[in-house]
Amino acid sequence: MRLFAGLRPSEEFRAALSVLQSRLQAAGVTAKYLDPSNLHMTLAFIGEWPENITALLPAVDQPFQLTLTHAGIFPEAKVIWAGTEPSDALDQLANQVRSRLSEAGIPFDPKPFVPHITLGRKPAVPAEFELSIIEIPSAVMTVREVCLFRSDREENGMVYSVIGKSAV
């Protein structure tokens, strides 16, 4: 199984992300946009692992909120993404996930955690385009759980499915 630990946006947050994708498209930003049902925030990418490791996911003892605030592009990764306001609670949660994986001997991508939600891949941006002109929809979500996702390659791209959630 190809696995990662992450956050699943609430329906309202997902709807705002979909609006953001539409605004980017209307502004001439082409990309292979993810289906809104696939939107997520990765806390730790594990990759191939033979078993379900939901039991390792930390519980969210104190729910916290994330607010959608901006969009960005990672040119080296060819990704256009949505970002949230900085959150110590989110950073601590990502560190907890990574610590638990490390303690269990489960390898994961060691790149530093950069909170973002991928909106699309291989973006093509008009030369005069400025991300700052895009109005970011208002959206807040409460984080209550960490999800274990499985990613499967299908005919139209990757599909991400929640196969477990942390206990509260």
Helix content: 10-25%
The number of domains is 1
In which order are the strands of the major sheet placed?
2-6-5-4-7
Average pLDDT value?
95
Total helix count?
A: 2
- Strand segment count: 9
CATH superfamily: Cyclic phosphodiesterase
Strand content: 35-45%
The CATH first-level class comes to Alpha Beta
Overall structural class, as computed from helix and strand content, comes to: alpha+beta
What is the chain-wise order of helices and strands? EHEEEEHEEEE
CA radius of gyration = 16 Å
| Annotated CATH topology | Cyclic Phosphodiesterase, Chain: A
Largest β-sheet summary: 5 strands, antiparallel
Can you characterise this structure?
With 168 residues, the protein is of the alpha+beta class. It has one domain: Cyclic Phosphodiesterase, Chain: A, CATH 3.90.1140.10. The chain is built from two helices and nine strands; from the N terminus they run βαββββαββββ. The chain has helices spanning 11-26, 88-103; strands at 2-7, 30-33, 41-48, 64-74, 79-84, 117-124, 140-143, 147-154, 157-165. The chain has a five-stranded antiparallel sheet, covered by helices on one side. It has a four-stranded antiparallel sheet with strand order 3-1-8-9, with helices on one face. A hairpin with a 2-residue loop joins strand 8 and strand 9 (157-165). It is globular. The model has no long low-confidence stretch (mean pLDDT 95).
